[in-house]
UniProtKB/TrEMBL annotation:
PROSITE patterns: PCMT. It comes from Gossypium hirsutum. Its EC number is 2.1.1.77. This is Protein-L-isoaspartate O-methyltransferase. It is an enzyme of class 2 (transferase). InterPro entries: PCMT (IPR000682), SAM-dependent_MTases_sf (IPR029063). Belongs to the methyltransferase superfamily. L-isoaspartyl/D-aspartyl protein methyltransferase family. It catalyses: [protein]-L-isoaspartate + S-adenosyl-L-methionine = [protein]-L-isoaspartate alpha-methyl ester + S-adenosyl-L-homocysteine. The gene is LOC107953552. The keyword Transcription does not apply.
Length: 229
């Protein structure tokens, strides 16, 4: 699905206004953070940054479409309050990790985990050019190379977990690292995928609902991804 094509869209602010116009963004806070973090800093040189489409970033990976980033930010908004901890699994370009860092602020913690070391390195360069650079420097934002299916236990438990690649099933390590009251947004499935909203209740029980049908690259091993899955 795509809400608009690129004609005439050449500004980050206009992209956000389109997302508001089509009802994808209803939250002022999500609009603000997506205006603050310019998507153009996270896409390959020469790519159409503000088109509502995923874009190839190499290594058989993509930066997700703006409407998917907006949808996930909206679903996680209550769990991205100042001071909270957020984990972005499959952080790719670092775009969403940077948005999380702005939302949780300097007293919070935003962690990206990506299994392609070259993407980790380029995501750090992207973030350094963005409004989230001071948070990276101060250490409330970090990006690490690793298998995101294991989460990132050092900064757990998390109020918010986002998974940017489709898992055949929800990894147990991620459920374990979710705080009671925390929320995970994760695409689940193979050919047909649903974006699942996973809430850990205060008694530790789990509630799961499907938000929408989606199409993501798989959450897999690095070797399988580099072979083309
Ligand atoms: C849709 S892409 C990037 C999403 C990211 N939100 C963005 O927009 O830049 C999904 C990412 O998940 C990564 N990935 C896939 N399996 C992974 C795993 N097991 N551990 C960590 N990262 C993984 C891929 O390398 C890819 O960068």
């Amino acid at each position: 699905m795509r809400f608009w094509i690129g004609n005439g869209i050449n500004k980050n602010k206009q992209m956000v206004e389109h997302l508001q116009h089509y009802g994808v963004i209803s939250s002022m806070k999500v609009a603000e953070v997506m205006e603050t973090i310019d998507r153009a800093l996270f896409v390959p040189d020469g790519a159409s940054a503000y088109v509502d489409s995923p874009l190839a970033i190499g290594y058989n990976a993509t930066i997700s479409a703006p409407h998917m980033h907006a949808t996930c930010l909206q679903l996680l908004e209550q769990n991205l309050q100042p001071g909270m901890h957020a984990l972005d699994v499959g952080s790719g370009t670092g775009y969403l990790t940077a948005c999380f860092a702005i939302m949780v602020g300097p007293q919070g913690r935003a962690v990206g985990v990506e299994h392609i070391p070259e993407l980790v390195a380029s995501s750090i360069k992207n973030i350094e050019k963005s409004a989230a650079a001071p948070l990276l420097k101060e250490g409330s934002l970090s990006v690490h190379a690793g298998d995101g299916r294991q989460g990132w236990p050092e900064c757990a438990p998390y109020d918010a977990i986002h998974v940017g690649a489709a898992a055949p099933e929800i990894p147990q390590a991620l459920l374990d690292q979710l705080k009671p009251g925390g929320r995970m947004v994760i695409p689940v499935g193979n050919m047909f995928q649903d974006l699942k909203v996973v809430d850990k209740n205060m008694d530790g029980s789990i509630s799961i609902r499907s938000e929408t049908s989606v199409r993501y690259v798989p959450l897999t091993s690095r070797d399988a991804q580099l072979r083309g899955y």
